[in-house]
Structure formats: structure tokens, C-alpha cells
Amino acid sequence: MNPYSIPPLLTLCCFVSLAAFTILRGRWTKTNVLFLIICILGTFLNIDIFLVFNVKSAATALLISRIDHFFIVYLFAVYLHFFHVYLNLSKRKWLIYAAYAYAFILMCLTPTSLYIVSVQQHFFGYFAKAGILFPLFDAASLFVNIYVLILILQAIRTEKSNTRKNNLKYVFAGFGIMGLMNALDVFPLHGYSVYPPGNASFIPLIVFAVGIYKHDLLDTGVLIKKGIIYSLLTACLTCMYALIIIAANKMFKEFDFSGSIYFPILFFLLIAFVFGPLKSKIQAFVDRLFYKGKYDYQKTIKSVSQMIVSVLDYDEITKQLIETIYAALQVEHCTLFLMDASASDFVRLTSRGNDSSVMLSASISIQSPLAIFMQHHRRPVIKKNLKRHTGSHKLQGLLADMDVLHAEIALPLMVKDALKGFVILGEKLSGDLFTAEDLDLMETLSSQSALAIENAQSYKKIHDLSRDLEKKVEERTQDLKAALFEKERTQEQLIRSESLAAIGQLVAGAAHELNNPLAGVTSLIQTTIEDLMQWDKHTPPDEDLIDDLKFADKELGRARSIVSSLLGLSRQTQTYSEAVNMNTVAKDALRILFNQYKYDDLEIIEKYDQNLPDTRGNFANLGQVALNIIQNAIQAADDKMPTILIETSFDKDTRQIAFVCTDSGPGIPASIRQDIFKPFFTTKAPGKGTGLGLYLCHEIVRKHGGSLTLEDSGGQGAQFMVRLPVAGQSSP
Hints:
One of its GO terms (molecular function) is phosphorelay sensor kinase activity. By secondary structure, this protein is an alpha+beta fold. The chain contains 23 helices and 15 strands. It has four domains: 220 residues, Up-down Bundle (Rhopdopsin 7-helix transmembrane proteins); 53 residues, no CATH class; 166 residues, Beta-Lactamase, CATH 3.30.450; 151 residues, Heat Shock Protein 90 (2-Layer Sandwich). The radius of gyration is 52 Å and the shape is elongated.
């Protein structure tokens, strides 16, 4: 065999191996089909070169070259088509059609001397000699190869994904350079005695094969395992060992070493001191090539195991877990999602890496396709594997969830066959694929992590129960203190109520005593007025006397009204079922307070709702409320323009009656508004106020099922509003 035919033989083996791998492991996508066609055409080309280098007849070599080039002319067209599909280029499809048409024309020329005129003898063997039209093929091949290399470089520069960028680099260094090397075979084809560069295509093809296993360039789902690599390495060393034995046997066959002990000893020493270190160095090279920057599997597992037994803090465990996975696998981002208290969502708990730049979702529903898939299958979800089965509607939803979370792998955390959370992993920083060792480590970490988190959650629940128990004891103590305070306050209020009741009885007695003489005097005056009106018309009485008597009757009527109001307001009944009209209550309060403001330049504006419905309650108690509120307004009214607005209204939506009193005084500062309804709180000078007025009003209104509030008057002064339910509504 011609030694110069060894490189094309190695290239032939590479093409055959890649073709077989594509058939056995690859999916029948357009990319893989085009790649397989390129491998088949490359196989034909290198069979041609191998045979031509070793045949003895020029005529045979010429026939082989012409038969081979009948198919090889399509190589540049398929090569162009492959990269358009691989790079997802939808533009310039016309260029692909033109390339195939151009190749068809060249195919028609291959059997003639216009394409290959003859074969030429070189130092390495026979090689085809180009005809006058062969430069057409050279130009097309050179153009396509340069065009493809430019496309790959542009794609590498614009690509954002580390994994995809590394894939493109391997494609450039492997398949791209291989095409350029084959295009340089133009030199021996045109008569130059230069060894064909394309024969060394096995070198970039080996680089491409490394990319296939390391980065899954053909999307076959093959994950690298150290055992497989080391087994292949051992097989190669064994073959090399056998070749050395065969070569030594041929080299020393003329010498008789059968009776000598030195040759076996020397050969053993050669194997022991050369092949042992050589194997170790090659293994170290493989580790650097395929597993550069990898984690220590046992060290990582040991670290997580120690964390489980030594750390009970929930937040610390989750933080260390994410730090461990992030440091071990060296990914772009790592995020932990755990089930929330309502068991309806998985909430993002902690993150590591550049997750802030990708804006990860804060939560994901427990009914999402991703959560359902992990609960059912209980194994890591790999996005790359899902893309091979995109036809399923369920997988489409699953991929959508993975895209939202920017996840390459979702690692479930299972506790007693229940999904308690999951870990999201982004792409590796190196752009490498996740290997089988990565998956083994992740599954081990997931089981240990789930156990650690479950223990931490149980500890946290116990701690929270203890804390809540202490809090409840403290709250119960506060309740007891509040009950004692309320008891003392109620006793004090009862004493004051009894005092008020005594005063009410006194007022009622005085009112009854005054009512009788007032009634008698009123009757006498009215009779006198009637007699005077019937006096002799010739000698009429003095008109001033009649006017004075009418004025006295009017004042006596006002006195009776005041006495009536006193009787109404002093009535001490315990019933809250009377029909009370707030218009009447307000008017009675104003009659009683008339003496306090009659000499002041005070303007009282009354706006009563004439259709105001009644409320159910105690007339005397509500009268006390109106009396206190209006009295405070009179005392607070501004000296310059003293005005008080009293109005009533009915809200049909809330079914409530409103009694509002607004004064023109200085108002109530915001700093004390929260204290004005407290007992014994007053802003008046000592001796002028007890601080019980608004407090008692507030309690009375509350017993009536209503509310007393200080409203925003929108300007100067204070505005108090009493809201009460209408008759028929629920009340105490």
C-alpha cells in the first residue's frame, strides 16, 4: 500500500464513521440528511483518491476519477445547502437552486476530456489532471467555501447563547475548514506536484467529531461519559501495542531472540515505562478537553451531606444549596422554587447568577405543564431533549414554561412522591452540554436537597409553634389586663350614669312643678286677652296693654317649650325601641341652649331633611348627644364670623340617617384627633371641661348601632357626623 494513501484512508474512515453515526443515532431532520449526503460524497471522493494512489494503470485511474467526479460535482451545492439549513437562513434560496443547476451542468461534462483530460503521475501517485472547463468547478467550490466561512463567522459574532456559539465554533473549525482544505486540491489538479491538502481532512473531521460528542452538534442527545472515552482510549492504546508487536516481529525476524531472556525483559520495561505514563497523559488530556473546570463529584456530595446534618436554618440551607449547585455545575443562573403555604404556586425563593438580567418569573402555578410533568415523571427535565418531540401539545406547553423560566434543566425536589419544589438551571458558562455525570450529580443533589429542606421546614414549624405559643400567652395576658381596665372603667361610668340619672330626675321634677303654674298663668292671660278683645267698642282698652299681654303669652309658650324639651331630654328609660326623629332632637337641643347664645352675634343655619325617616333608640340619650355636640360648636365658634351649620340627611344606599354639626372655629389639630373620644381628654381650661362629653356621645351612638366621627370640613372649623340606622334596621 502506498504510504501517501494513509491520510485519505483516515479521512475515509472519518466520513464512514460520521455517516454511520448519523444513520444510527441522528434524527431524520433536513440538517442531518444533508450532512449524511456530504459524508457519502466525501466517502466517494476519498475512495477515489485512495484507489488512484494505489493503482498501477493510468487508464484505470482516469476511469475511477471520472466516475467519482460524476457525483462529486454536487458536493459544493449540498455543502451550501447544509449551511443554509443549519444556520436557519431563509433568504437567498435562489443561490441554492443556482448551485444545484450549476452542478448538474458540470455533471454532464465529467465524462469528457473537457472536465478531466487525463491523470498525472506525481511522487505520491496518480492524480486527475483538470481539463479546460474544470476551473468552473474550482471557482464554484472556492466561492461556496469562502461564503460559508463568512456566514459562520457572522453567526458566531451575533449569537448570544453560549451553547450555540460553541457549536458554531466547532462547525467552523471542523466542517468549515474541511471544505476549504478540499477546495485547495486545485493545485495538484492543475499539474502542480503538491500533496493534496484535502487528504488531511481527517484532522478537522476529528475536531468536528469531538464537537458532536461534546456539544451534540447533530442534535442526537448523546451525552459524554468518562467510561466510554476511557474505553476508547484503552482500545486505541491496545491497537498501538499490537502494532508495535507486529512491527517488532517484522523488524527483528532475522534475529533469533527465542532463547534469550533479555528481549522479553526489555520489551516489558518498554511497555511499563512508556505506555503507562503515556496512558496517564492521554487521560489527563482527555479530562482537560472534555471536563475542563469540572467539579469533584464526591466532594460535592460530601459537602451537601454535611450541610444536611449541621444546618437547620431554612434560609441558610436554601442559600447553600443554590451556591453548591451553581459552583459545581458552573451555570449562568441557578434558581430555587418552593411550594408556598397555600400549596397553589411554586414561589422563587433564592437565586444565584445573572437571573436578574433575564427577568425570571416570581412564581409558577402548581397546575402548570412543567409542574405536572415533574410530579408525574419525577426526573430532571432537559429542554434540549424536549425539542426533539415538539409535535405534542403538552410538550409545547412544557417548553413554553421552560422558556419563561429561561431554563435548560429543571430539577424536581421530591419528598415522599410529592413535588415540593424544583431547581432551575441555565446554560453552562462554558457553553458545554450537561453530561451524564452532571445528571447523576443533580439527581443525587435533588434527593439530598429535598430531605434537607424538608427537615429545615419541620424545624421551622416547631420553632414557629413555640414562638406563636409565647405570643398567645402574651396576648392573653394583655386581654386580662384590658378586661380589668374595662371593669374599672365600667364601674366609674356606672357611677357617673347614676349621677346623671339623679340630675335628670331633679330636672324632671322641677319641670313638672313649673309646668302647672305656667299652664295656669297662660290660661288666665289668654282669657283676659279674649275679654279685652270683646270690650265696648266705644271705650276700647289701651292697645299697648293688649300687646303686652300677647307678648307675655308668647314668652310663656316658649317657656313651656323649654320645659317640654327638658322633660324629653331628661327621660331616663332603658329602652332603645322608641321611634326617634333626629330633626326633633336637634330642635329641642337648640331650644335648651338658646340662653347660651341669644346675646351673641351667632348665626345658626338649620337644614333639615323634611322626609327624614325615624331611627330606633332612646330619645333622651340621642338628645344628650345633640346637646353636647352643638354646645361644643357654640363654644368653639369664631368671634369674628360665628356660624354653626346643623343639617340632617338620609343615605338610601347605606340606609343610614346623618346628623351633622359644623362650626366656624379653629378646628381640631391633627395631633390630637385620635384622642378626642377618649374619656377625660379635654383641651379646655381647668374647671371648664371634664373630658367626658364626646366620650359619652361616642358610647351612646355606638349602643344605637351607629357611629360618631370627626370629618374633614374642607376648611376652617370642625365637623362632627352622627350616622344611625333607620327604624327597622338592626340595633342594640
